Amino acid sequence: MIKEIDQITQDIIKTFKVKEGINHLSGPNLPSRQSIINIITTLESIIFPGFQENEILEEEFLSYNIGEKLLRSCQSLMAEISKSIRYRNQENSNEQSQNDEEASQLTFDFLKTLTTIRDMALKDVNAALKGDPAARSREEVILSYPGLEAITVHRMAHELYKMNIPLIPRMMNEHLHRKTGIDIHPGAQIGESFFIDHGTGVVIGETTVIGCNVKVYQGVTLGALSVKKEEANIKRHPTIEDNVTIYSGATILGGTTSIGQNTVIGGNVWITSSIPKDSLVYNRPAEYILKNRYGQQ
Amino acid sequence: MIKEIDQITQDIIKTFKVKEGINHLSGPNLPSRQSIINIITTLESIIFPGFQENEILEEEFLSYNIGEKLLRSCQSLMAEISKSIRYRNQENSNEQSQNDEEASQLTFDFLKTLTTIRDMALKDVNAALKGDPAARSREEVILSYPGLEAITVHRMAHELYKMNIPLIPRMMNEHLHRKTGIDIHPGAQIGESFFIDHGTGVVIGETTVIGCNVKVYQGVTLGALSVKKEEANIKRHPTIEDNVTIYSGATILGGTTSIGQNTVIGGNVWITSSIPKDSLVYNRPAEYILKNRYGQQ
Amino acid sequence: MIKEIDQITQDIIKTFKVKEGINHLSGPNLPSRQSIINIITTLESIIFPGFQENEILEEEFLSYNIGEKLLRSCQSLMAEISKSIRYRNQENSNEQSQNDEEASQLTFDFLKTLTTIRDMALKDVNAALKGDPAARSREEVILSYPGLEAITVHRMAHELYKMNIPLIPRMMNEHLHRKTGIDIHPGAQIGESFFIDHGTGVVIGETTVIGCNVKVYQGVTLGALSVKKEEANIKRHPTIEDNVTIYSGATILGGTTSIGQNTVIGGNVWITSSIPKDSLVYNRPAEYILKNRYGQQ
Amino acid sequence: MIKEIDQITQDIIKTFKVKEGINHLSGPNLPSRQSIINIITTLESIIFPGFQENEILEEEFLSYNIGEKLLRSCQSLMAEISKSIRYRNQENSNEQSQNDEEASQLTFDFLKTLTTIRDMALKDVNAALKGDPAARSREEVILSYPGLEAITVHRMAHELYKMNIPLIPRMMNEHLHRKTGIDIHPGAQIGESFFIDHGTGVVIGETTVIGCNVKVYQGVTLGALSVKKEEANIKRHPTIEDNVTIYSGATILGGTTSIGQNTVIGGNVWITSSIPKDSLVYNRPAEYILKNRYGQQ
Amino acid sequence: MIKEIDQITQDIIKTFKVKEGINHLSGPNLPSRQSIINIITTLESIIFPGFQENEILEEEFLSYNIGEKLLRSCQSLMAEISKSIRYRNQENSNEQSQNDEEASQLTFDFLKTLTTIRDMALKDVNAALKGDPAARSREEVILSYPGLEAITVHRMAHELYKMNIPLIPRMMNEHLHRKTGIDIHPGAQIGESFFIDHGTGVVIGETTVIGCNVKVYQGVTLGALSVKKEEANIKRHPTIEDNVTIYSGATILGGTTSIGQNTVIGGNVWITSSIPKDSLVYNRPAEYILKNRYGQQ
Amino acid sequence: MIKEIDQITQDIIKTFKVKEGINHLSGPNLPSRQSIINIITTLESIIFPGFQENEILEEEFLSYNIGEKLLRSCQSLMAEISKSIRYRNQENSNEQSQNDEEASQLTFDFLKTLTTIRDMALKDVNAALKGDPAARSREEVILSYPGLEAITVHRMAHELYKMNIPLIPRMMNEHLHRKTGIDIHPGAQIGESFFIDHGTGVVIGETTVIGCNVKVYQGVTLGALSVKKEEANIKRHPTIEDNVTIYSGATILGGTTSIGQNTVIGGNVWITSSIPKDSLVYNRPAEYILKNRYGQQ
């Protein structure tokens, strides 16, 4: 009987009255996940032109191609940023037109950073090509390295994060987290020529600072020692200086922990205090026990 | 030549005769992955109303909105459960109409649990907000925390698991596993206010029992010590009591292993026997070797 | 003003002149990600017929069903392989028709391996059913085990890898990496009855050799000790012999490292040299420190 | 240059300032064509259940199937009617909630007419089956007679027209006009057992009144003699009494023109004044000239 | 209240009990409109290869392209024909496997006619190019003449009609009727080099017989004089011999009416008896009244 | 057997060798129907902004909205025009870059006409509002009058026709022909404030010239007397001067036929020679025979 569905509907709606926080019923819309995914896809095709296209990209028509994509992203991003700002300002009395103006300005400021992001993307591609013996070509890196996509989207999200736009940067990076298993908080500051290999399980926290030419493998955590809410505004995550390599499964924790330049951190190493530059850090070898399964050791 | 394709077709079809088990040619259809994904998406939008919508959700039309979604899910779920039951009963001689009646009853019983699941979802959101210093708002948690989505879908799949419906609960949780890297078996019993941060690589086994206010980080395994098929029906996975926190990469194994309440398990710790309540468990610090890369130690 | 967009467009296009490598503007198209995903999906439905279908697959029409899918894949794969070969040959002066002929031959050679791959898929399904106490049926394994999908697609990608086709095999496996968190390089040689449970974070390197009846859990790395570019063409990853089980989080590194048959590698173990057959390898137990959180130990 | 696009954009936007009427920039949204098409499709599948489905419609699940479709249509229609009312009231100061309440009431009143419309649809199907020697079965009529679809949608649109809802009824009938070439104004009153054969070019004006068992062929116009705007509110189109047949290409004009019952109007006849009942009206036969093409007559 | 929807649902379901004929609830599925549209689209792309493609059709891959499309159509058409046969046989006790075998045979017989249909399509294209001064090229005819598409689909539907397959041929032609306004019954026999210009409103009845090189303009009806159900199995529609041209709006009625070869029928002429060969038939000229609008004649 | 499909494939491919003209196998691609439909849809939403949108169109973001649509259309149109030019030039030796430059110039010239087309669209809307007593508002006209859409798309196609671009203008108008039953050749010259009511079956030939304030009803033909191929380049269709109204079913033929200004042409009138200005032309009244069906006259 549909009457039962009606009953369940009424029961569910009753839970709307008492429970604030997981209904979004009134007020302005929140940013749309699908729009943000579309924006990311379009911006990636500006940064790596010709790699996602089905048709040959003619140089003749290049400025229209890039221009159209920019304008399309611009328009969508303005709308999403505008929602995001309205959400942020909801207790204040800003007028809609003020929000729209701010959204428009922030969008332009963001789009202007794309040339720099393209510069960095090239360096990231080169870092992957250099860092992985299995990589055969730039094309292979661009088409099949999840770490490259994660860092490229992060570089965009980080620009929006710096502009103090809520929700959108996190939604961007979380989209990549779901695609790649690489979880970078948009707050993290990451230098040039960054390479994440394999990447599944990598976690890079909000206040992490990473230098240039850093290489990170799957399962690495750059995390916080403390998870006290009241310390949300201080540096909780480590600093990684230039030319550091961190092998798979290593964990580096703490806002005052710093890994000095040129250091290599071995797999599975657990670090909670600073390491001087030029170090080699690794777990004791041969810690395991080896027995014959059938009794004889 | 298409003749070659014909030859390959004949060769493949020959393999159908001798190999049972990976063809599904006769008998009733199996549950459809796409339908199950659609059902999940609809149910999530009932639990978190207004977060997946592109249009503002007017309170005026709320009962139609929820009612329509419920009825849509109800209808799809009945069809999928009916397939699932037919599959389960295939050797017995139940009539189709009996299966449909059972499917219909199970679907209602399931939908009635949604109000409770909404209650728990609110508590899970609050747990995330409290547990992660980087979380700024409930909206951010709902829009971008994969752990929240994983536990919410798990709570639904677990209800179906308890009803002894085959295939569907596993397909639900596996869908979330693919999206989030968090692998929870639908059999796991998980209490209120559960929070998984980052989450990639988390594995929670079928007979795990978890209390309230438990917090789990990326890469945590709650697994079995034995993988003997004949022990499939006994408790193989650990019990985690209330207020336990388990940091990244920790592994807790065994059906009789119990982690006492208020305990904190440090990162990468490997546990195969019970821990008393109020404990702090962590690996020995500074186990690594630190050398200068260029020879000097 | 759209003038600003125009300015940004011009700025971005300027970066095309100086930066080779991340534009793909001239020359032939690269393989299309979407086509490759479609090919994978179709081939999977040939290997596991009736599992992805919405309609009952009638035996009467089976040869048309399989034939149509084969011809569809054949045609798409030829086109993608043709692009891939053109890309590989771009500096040489091969004619288009020569490339097409080669693409056509390679496609047939590949499709002929599908019967063997179906044989292996059945054995992989049986290995999962046997290896996981939670697995209830072959149907459950096929519908919800990510490790099965990863190994099945790998077996196809590996055939293309052996034919020296660039880009496509990596794109195939990377698609599965994104879906499952399991990162297998298409170069890896993997024997019959392979089972990966849970799988998130598994990494299997290009020159890995794996025997029959091997079982691997989440977070296992079969990796290289050295990442020197000049060693790209030597064996850099380990050999795993028959009947080996490797528990979660274990790391096995190095091209000369070999794990002897029947060996069990415990969770989180870190191995960089060979292990004799019939071994049981595990970390020292109880390495952790256990304190009462409130001061008393 | 994108500058040129910018210039054209500016030029187009300038035309917004001076030209009212073809911009819809401010104020509430208008009804969405796509939503209205979706509503029509859903309602048609309620009226002719099982004809648009890909899956067998089980009687067991029938009430959920119909209920879900009703609720889905209900929700969409409320939203579209609400937009339509806001549009109608835009100069008055009705509050949104008042509009929503009215939309909700009108939607229910409309949905309650569906049982009657189903009754009439059955009679219309039977009229087609009886009226066309080429019709083999009810199934054939429902699946392939455009006239049936046109009259069915008209019967729905007419109910909305009677409720004085602007835009939506016209959009509904115009959708069918585009599909079938049959242009019925939603204002037309049409009795039971109506059959339009072939239908292309049929035009039935707003104030037409048609009795029962009327049959109309392609190219028939039931139109107005006068098109003076100031006569918009008087009856401008003819009355067709019961059991009338009108053959292809006939034109009947004028609000006081009435075709008496049982009358047959021949093809291409042009009528501007009333015809008594039981008439047979046809053009003079053999009006054409017949010559031999090559000179001899 | 959803209760009201429940009430309406119950009321609608009540109408299912008493009204046979417009519910399709039990028994086998009917042919699917969407599948039939897809089949038509695929077959058209076999007949006019390279015109609907986005990518260049390489001769090298041609046999795969055509083969894949044939096999795809073959498989879909078999399924639809099988449903159609089951529908036809529903009172008889034919077994499913018998139906499937018949469907399979009919599908092959049909596909074998495609080469002939391609021959005729070329002649139809040439007829259009020759017959319309505005036609510039074969490409223009294929890309933009609705009459060509209508006759091409008719030639396919007619083959299925001759095989006594119910529903599908009518659904095919009705799809084209909706696209083009040209309503050809699949029973009509139409010779080579047929050209319909503009075409809107053309109706060609079931038992029409048309010779070669016939040209027909918009609004032409080739219809029946009588619409008595009991005459369904006799020839009700006219015969048009070779080289006849019929201008717009002409109506030719009756099963014994024959238009002799080389005849030209003028616009709007109404014919109900046979016309000898080599005739020119036209309405009396200047039948209209011409007045000055402002009183003076 | 798939062998039979192979045989049919071979038979069809054989027909490729001998039959030129209905294969498009080599040479450049032809314009894509789908792209042209998308371009039309986008351009219509520039001309009638806010009518096809689901979201409210904010004035703040208007220039981005229009700019993005323009750039999107610009890019697609350039590509389609480029294909069209290559097709036209296929026997000459123009270089690709020359074609692209020409395509680019033509696209701009076309887009610059959009402001004028918007001016004319407003006048066409007003003509419909004035000309049809049933029209209630501009919104109703824009949302539901097929004649308005037909003339608007024609005005765009005509601009491309004047630039001597092959195929595309015909494909545009034919798309509207299929949607509306109104067949306007892109060559026709049509003045301001043009209104087609109902429209099904209207045909307007290539060399027709129509003045301002002309009103046309369904089934009107403005056609040619002669269809000799060698007269393709002379004026074959009539001239309609300002303020003329042509009622349904009227036919006006011949390149020297001119309908003087202010004239009204009655329904079904057939005209092949010029009519002076200020005329009223209609068929003799009461030409039909009226009998009692049952014998008495």
Describe the structure.
Chains A, B, C, D, E, F: InterPro entries: LbH_SAT, Ser_AcTrfase_N_sf, Serine_acetyltransferase, Trimer_LpxA-like_sf. Chains A, B, C, D, E, F: One of its GO terms (biological process) is amino acid biosynthetic process. Chains A, B, C, D, E, F: GO terms for molecular function: acyltransferase activity. Chains A, B, C, D, E, F: It comes from Oceanispirochaeta crateris. The structure is a homohexamer of 297-residue chains. By secondary structure, chain A is α/β, with parallel strands linked by helices. Chain A folds into 2 domains: 28-182, Orthogonal Bundle (serine acetyltransferase, domain 1); 188-282, 3 Solenoid (UDP N-Acetylglucosamine Acyltransferase, domain 1), CATH 2.160.10. Helix content of chain A is 44%, strand content 13%. Chain A has helices at residues 2-18, 33-47, 62-88, 96-112, 114-131, 138-144, 146-162, 168-180, and strands at 183-184, 189-190, 195-196, 203-204, 209-210, 215-216, 221-223, 239-240, 245-246, 251-253, 258-259, 264-265, 270-271, 279-283, 288-292. The first copy, chain A, has a 5-stranded parallel beta sheet with strand order 1-4-7-10-13. In chain A, strands 3-6-9-12-14 form a 5-stranded parallel beta sheet. In chain A, 56% of the residues are buried. Chains in contact: A-B, A-C, A-D, A-E, A-F, B-C, B-D, B-E, B-F, C-D, C-E, C-F, D-E, D-F, E-F. The interface between A and C is large, with 69 and 74 residues.
